[in-house]
Specification:
The chain is mostly helical. 79% of the residues lie in helices and 0% in strands. The protein contains 18 helices and no strands. The longest helix has 34 residues. It is globular. The protein starts with 9 loop residues before the first helix and ends in a 7-residue tail after the last helix. The structure holds phenylalanine (PHE).
């Protein structure tokens, strides 16, 4: 078997992991889910969820990946639990589930870059979204998005993923900062900051049953957890760098970029009298397009904004494709480009219902958030916390020597985190069943 790939540099790993984390979750979903769940109060719960639940889970995935140096399925065999390969496979399945519709949204974004340059949505933002979001157009751009993703993954870990994300991630940061600076100059931006940053705790108390599962689900989604992705990426980490530090950097960067996205979106919406609470997958598109249609230089700014979103979405989709490609490469059965193409084609077909009718997209998304992600993370945490246990701590601490932090991590995973995830799963299931959302929109 050919030598297995490793990241050329530590930075390469970090940038790829940040590229996976930062995506539509931060820019498309985060603002509209914040708006739908009470504004700033959601931000507070989300931040607690990211640090208290997301980070320990991310470290759990890193531990499995670096320890086994193999794909997310065989990792469990290598650790001595061949039956538990099902956990890795379940993660990969969820990644598939999510990327199928993620790519449809990625296609919309690509379409909006072109639409901005041509001013296509300027006269009627709402109708424009309706005309491109479903049907043959949406399928075409979904295919295009998937094709670019396949192209990067086909080039390999170093010359494809590492090289691409090293350009993509810094671009996202720089452009987002520039856009946030521009947003700050909008008259009326202050109301947006208030809405985003000034929590009303009464809302939380009244709607905890909805807010908490969404915030925790969002923490998993945004950190690419429960999808076998971070296991795969960390399996290419060769040296003994500190996983604690790397995990911390990924979480901080991902959160900063998410907040930055809010600092672009909310001021712009409020400055243009767009109500952010008209929540839904179209919120970002319609509302931002509406805003761009009203400002000087709107074509350019619109293309820039949707361009950033597109880059962020691509670097996430890439990471999921790599999960499957790494499995196939470890089995040395087929060439990397072939596997990438086959995986991409499967994802394309799976995404067609979502591109045909947004009810499907919503169904896929809801099930992923409320059921699959928390369930997958729960299984993983039980495995790492209670079965691997001390072995996991040893692995975590290679490259850093902080026994105290290691034990804190293990006990947090074993208790608080697992209990919180069970609670989230229960709340999510309850709303799924009571709301009837579990039934596919046939
Ligand atoms: N972390 C990504 C985001 O926030 C989510 C994601 C990554 C989804 C990879 C699918 C695959 O957008």
């Amino acid at each position: 078997m050919a030598q297995r790939a490793t990241w050329a540099t530590r930075l390469g790993f970090l940038v790829a992991a940040i590229g996976s984390a930062v995506g539509l979750g931060n820019i498309w979903q985060f603002p509209f889910k914040t708006a739908a769940n009470g504004g700033a109060v959601f931000l507070v719960v989300y931040l607690i969820a990211v640090v208290g639940i997301g980070l320990p889970t991310l470290l759990a995935e890193f531990v499995i990946g670096r320890r086994t140096q193999t794909n997310a399925v065989d990792a469990f065999r290598k650790l001595g639990y061949p039956k538990l390969r099902v956990i890795g496979a379940f993660g990969a399945f969820i990644g598939f589930w999510i990327v199928s519709y993620y790519s449809v949204v990625g296609g919309w974004v690509g379409r909006y870059v072109i639409g901005s340059l041509r001013g296509a949505y300027f006269s009627a933002p709402q109708q424009y979204f309706g005309s491109i979001a479903v049907g043959p157009d949406a399928i075409f751009f979904h295919g295009l998005f998937m094709a670019v993703t396949v192209g990067v993954v086909a080039l390999g870990v170093n010359s494809g993923i590492e090289r691409a994300t090293k350009v993509m991630v810094p671009s996202i940061v720089v452009l987002m900062i520039a856009l946030a600076g521009w947003a700050a100059t909008r008259p009326g931006a202050m109301a947006g900051y208030d809405y985003f940053l000034d929590p009303q705790f009464g809302t939380l108390v009244a709607n905890a049953g909805d807010i908490v599962p969404f915030a925790v689900g969002q923490a998993f989604f945004t950190l690419s957890l429960g999808m076998a992705i971070m296991i795969t990426y960390s399996s290419y980490v060769g040296g003994d760098t500190s996983l604690l530090v790397d995990g911390g950097i990924v979480v901080v960067m991902n959160t900063l970029i998410g907040v930055l996205a809010g600092l672009v979106v909310f001021p712009v919406l409020f400055a243009n009298n767009v109500d952010p609470a008209t929540s839904g997958p179209d919120a970002l598109f319609v509302a931002m397009a509406n805003a761009f249609s009203q400002v000087p230089g709107g074509r350019f700014l619109g293309a820039l904004f949707f361009g950033v979103v597109l880059i962020a979405a691509l670097s996430s989709a890439i990471s999921l494709l790599e999960v499957v490609v790494s499995y196939a490469s470890d089995h040395a059965s087929a060439s990397r480009p072939r596997v990438a193409l086959l995986t991409g084609s499967t994802l394309f077909v799976l995404g067609i219902p979502s591109a045909w009718d947004s009810a499907w997209l919503g169904w896929f998304d809801t099930l992923a958030y409320k059921l699959f992600l928390p369930l997958s993370v729960l299984l993983l945490l039980i495995f790492v916390g209670w079965i691997l246990a001390d072995e996991a701590v040893d692995q975590l601490l290679q490259g850093s020597d902080n026994r105290w932090l290691g034990s804190l991590w293990l006990w947090t995973v074993r208790t608080v985190v697992i209990v919180a995830v069970i609670g989230t799963l229960a709340l999510g299931l309850e709303t799924l069943l009571l709301g009837g959302d579990i039934v596919p929109p046939l």
